[in-house]
């Protein structure tokens, strides 16, 4: 019978809630929307954090897979997280701590031609046959690569397709195995199709070719040095540190790479190999930012919940007489508390449901908002774990929102509640306590908004500093084009390339046109290394590691490179003249004397063995290896790399697979893009146009991550400020209403409007001051977590900490002006009348 009564009471409470919402929809919709926005934003960030940082990799026993990085003399390879071919083979032949090791190289763009003659540009990865077995992935159809297909790559001519390519271009045909397609100029046989969930090394990869890891030939004149990405699968019970120790020992016993090691690592010092869990290595760059954003959205949820609590507390105050009447006719405190919990549960379930829908909508926006290279985006989903997290948030909101009015009911004085009128409860303990609770919540909201605003201003100032940073070239009014082809000597490309340059130069809006195998943020040319006598100490030798760029003389003025000593390359530097080279400031400082002009470098390029330094240019800040390694700040915070520039006319045998045009025009350089595409298609049809963009757009693209972090945190801060403003408006309106009789008396006794406004705004000023002091103090310590995300700005930047109080003071003034002006219009007769 007690159970039946409880169910009947619950049904009665639900009917009462329905009548309340029908009578006053705003009292339910507003808190429900606030709760939904808080739950939706928090759930979205949790899904992103869980999918990127916490979710296991989609491979068998992923915790046993480690990523490897080799260093020599403490210097890592020119491509991060890579090892050398000597260490790879030495460890692979006699492994004790690992079950297997596999490698891959950077995915490259290739032209695919299928049987119908249709052409498409594909991102193709090169992997060792052992890699797919280390990951323990199985093909959906066909087979994986055999080991001998990597040692005879050209003869084997095989390819494995990604699921997406198989569906898109072959219609999911199960008989695709054995058919052929052409990648660039190679005819390949399809031997396998992978499962849909394999996105390796990234989700853009559409096919895989076998990768050969060359062996060092002892005694050979040319030692084939390689660096590449690698992972290993640990044996059961083996730690990453144990595997790293074995790899280090194997690498030190392997044959030397000689000068190739210097080119690839910058040092021929002692070898060391580090091993890190693959998931941690994959997400190391974004981990600090995600933790900061998750903490920020947690504050947003707290702010939204506080606003709902304020609204619930205000409703409880306004319904004091109703609760008192219920108590007078026999309802106990428990019965009334259950009524409030039912109302809160109704709002919470509605808010949680809408919040999940908001999270689903925001989830669709994540690929648009986040940079294209953001790791593990395929793993981010609204799954069971995320839905469970949203349910926990909803339950916490229900309990919190029902607890405050329930406590008010418990402390409510029946006599005082029935004695006071409906609009002005007496000065009992419950009223005083409730007012203090509301004030404390508003102080917390202002403090949270203050913390988020400080972080936003810091990130905004950091992003502004990144935009204004000196990159060693002038990106304004420059149009660029990135082109690819099969690896071809410059001599075979120069005819069409030069004709295209001449036609572009003849356009009225064009100032300079240059080309080369290097373009900031896209391609860096080649890697080189050699040994030469030290200009600073003739009795010793110096090991040189450098980027080597082959360009036209016009490349320098077109890109806006600054010549700081000597001269740039020019048209007089031909195949019949003395070989010359231009170096950058870093190269000159590391390897040359105080006066580098005239220094002869022993570099073997074709038949030429000596090259004279004729000029020094400023460094180009582009992240070292640009596209090969994402830079957190677009490369401006990375140490500049040594660079050498050769003219293509003196190095015609240099084979290139990438080429770039740089066109400096007027303010409308972007309008030259259609003409650029048309000329390149006519004069250099063998070059595939991959991208045409202004250099300013490439700079912005390189800053995608810091821009995204600033925008997201800024959005959270604006949301927090808006919630605080709305909450402050509501609290001040409520306080003004509660003090209506007092205001009427003061007005009757001669108080002027400005006196009444001062009386009302004094409460807001106290809330603002308390929240500001607490918020600035908290921000002073919490901004330390932003240090990895800031460039050119101190975490305790004075401007940022000064700007926030100014912003908040404007918001508080706007939020208080309406309640304050309304209070000045109170009529003493109305205020003093009993109802």
Question: Could you explain the architecture of this structure?
Answer:
The chain is α+β, with helices and mostly antiparallel strands. Helix content is 50%, strand content 20%. Strands 17, 18, 19, 20, 21, 22 and 23 form a seven-stranded mixed beta sheet that branches. Strand 8 and strand 9 (186-194) form a beta hairpin. Helix 13 packs antiparallel against helix 14 (384-411) and helix 16 crosses helix 24 (753-782). It is elongated, with a radius of gyration of 34 Å. It starts with a helix and ends with a helix.
Summarize this structure as a short list of keywords or feature phrases:
835 residues; alpha+beta; seven-stranded mixed beta sheet; six-stranded mixed barrel; 26 helices; 25 strands; elongated
The number of helical segments is: 26
Query: Helicity level, as a percent range?
Result: 40-55%
The profile of the biggest β sheet is: 7 strands, mixed
Percent of residues in β-strands: 15-25%
Structural class: alpha+beta
- Poorly predicted regions are 420-431, 624-630
Structure summary, number of beta strands: 25
Q: Based on Cα principal axes, name the global outline.
A: elongated
End-to-end C-alpha gap: 43 Å
What is the gyration radius calculated from CA atoms? Answer: 34 Å
Overall pLDDT level: 81
């Amino acid at each position: 019978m007690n159970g039946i009564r409880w169910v009947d009471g619950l049904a009665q409470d639900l009917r009462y809630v329905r009548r309340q919402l029908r009578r006053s929809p705003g009292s339910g919709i507003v808190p429900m929307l606030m709760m939904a926005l808080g739950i939706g934003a928090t759930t979205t960030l949790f899904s992103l954090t869980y999918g990127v940082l916490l979710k296991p990799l989609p491979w068998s026993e992923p915790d046993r897979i480690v990523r490897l990085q080799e260093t020599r003399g403490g210097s890592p390879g020119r491509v991060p997280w890579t090892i050398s071919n000597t260490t790879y083979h030495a460890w692979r032949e006699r492994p004790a701590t690992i079950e297997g090791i596999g490698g891959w190289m950077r995915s490259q763009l290739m032209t695919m031609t299928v049987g119908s003659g249709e052409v498409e540009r594909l991102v193709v990865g090169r992997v060792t046959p052992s890699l797919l077995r280390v990951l323990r992935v199985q093909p959906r159809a066909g087979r994986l690569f055999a080991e001998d297909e990597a040692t005879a790559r050209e003869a084997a001519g095989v390819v494995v397709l990604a699921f997406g390519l198989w569906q898109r271009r072959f219609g999911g045909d199960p008989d695709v195995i054995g058919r052929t397609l052409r990648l660039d100029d190679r005819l390949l046989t399809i031997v396998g199709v992978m499962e849909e969930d394999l996105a390796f090394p990234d989700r853009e990869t559409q096919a895989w070719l076998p990768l050969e890891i060359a062996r060092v030939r002892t005694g050979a004149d040319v030692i084939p040095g390689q660096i590449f990405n690698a992972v290993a699968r640990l044996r059961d019970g083996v730690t990453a540190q144990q595997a790293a120790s074995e790899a280090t020992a194997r690498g030190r016993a392997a044959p030397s790479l000689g000068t190739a090691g210097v080119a690839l690592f910058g040092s021929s010092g002692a070898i060391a190999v580090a091993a890190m869990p693959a998931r941690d290595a994959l997400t190391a760059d974004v981990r600090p930012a995600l933790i900061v954003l998750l903490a920020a959205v947690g504050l947003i949820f707290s702010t939204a919940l506080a606003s709902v609590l304020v609204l619930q507390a205000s409703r409880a105050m306004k319904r004091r007489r109703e609760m008192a009447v219920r108590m007078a006719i026999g309802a106990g405190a428990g019965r009334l508390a259950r009524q409030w919990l039912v109302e809160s549960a109704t709002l919470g379930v509605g808010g949680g449901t809408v919040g999940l829908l908001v999270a689903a909508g925001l989830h669709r926006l994540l690929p648009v908002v986040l940079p294209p290279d953001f790791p593990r985006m395929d793993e981010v989903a609204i799954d069971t774990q995320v839905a469970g997290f949203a349910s926990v948030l909803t339950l916490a909101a229900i309990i919190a929102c029902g607890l405050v009015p329930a406590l008010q009911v418990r402390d409510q004085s029946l006599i005082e509640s029935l004695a006071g009128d409906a609009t002005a409860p007496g000065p009992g303990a419950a009223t005083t306590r409730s007012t203090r609770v509301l004030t404390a919540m508003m102080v917390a909201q202002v403090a949270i908004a203050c913390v988020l605003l400080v972080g936003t201003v810091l990130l905004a100032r950091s992003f502004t500093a990144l935009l204004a940073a000196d990159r060693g070239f002038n990106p304004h009014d420059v149009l660029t084009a990135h082109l690819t082809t099969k690896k071809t000597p410059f001599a075979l490309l120069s005819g069409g390339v030069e004709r295209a340059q001449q036609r572009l130069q003849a356009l009225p809006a064009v100032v300079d046109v240059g080309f080369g195998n290097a373009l900031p943020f896209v391609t860096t040319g080649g890697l080189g290394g050699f040994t030469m006598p030290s200009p600073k100490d003739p009795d010793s030798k110096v090991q040189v590691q450098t980027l080597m760029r082959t360009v036209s003389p016009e490349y320098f003025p077109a890109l806006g490179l600054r010549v700081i000593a000597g001269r740039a390359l020019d048209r007089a530097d031909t195949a019949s003249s003395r070989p010359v080279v231009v170096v950058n400031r870093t190269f000159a400082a590391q390897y040359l004397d105080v006066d580098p002009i005239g220094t002869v470098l022993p570099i073997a390029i074709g038949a030429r063995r000596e090259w004279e330094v004729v000029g020094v240019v400023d460094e180009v800040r582009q992240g070292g290896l640009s596209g090969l390694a994402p830079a957190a700040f677009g490369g401006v915070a990375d140490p500049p790399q040594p660079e050498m520039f050769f003219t293509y006319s003196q190095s015609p045998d240099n084979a290139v697979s990438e080429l770039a045009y740089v066109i400096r025009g007027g303010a409308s350089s972007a309008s030259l893009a259609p003409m650029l595409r048309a000329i390149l298609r006519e004069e250099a049809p063998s070059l595939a146009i991959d991208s045409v963009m202004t250099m300013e757009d490439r700079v912005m693209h390189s800053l995608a991550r810091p821009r995204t972090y600033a925008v997201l945190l800024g959005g959270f801060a604006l949301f927090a400020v808006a919630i605080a403003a709305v909450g402050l408006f509501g609290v001040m309106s409520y306080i003004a209403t509660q003090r209506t009789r007092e205001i009427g008396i003061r007005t009757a006794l001669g108080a002027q409007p400005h006196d009444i406004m001062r009386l009302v705004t004094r409460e807001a000023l106290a809330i603002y001051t308390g929240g500001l002091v607490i918020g600035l103090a908290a921000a002073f310590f919490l901004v330390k977590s932003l240090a990895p995300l800031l460039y050119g700005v101190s975490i305790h930047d004075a401007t940022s900490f000064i700007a926030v109080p100014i912003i908040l003071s404007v918001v508080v003034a706007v939020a208080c002006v309406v309640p304050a002006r309304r209070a000045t219009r109170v009529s003493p007769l109305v205020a003093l009348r009993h109802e």
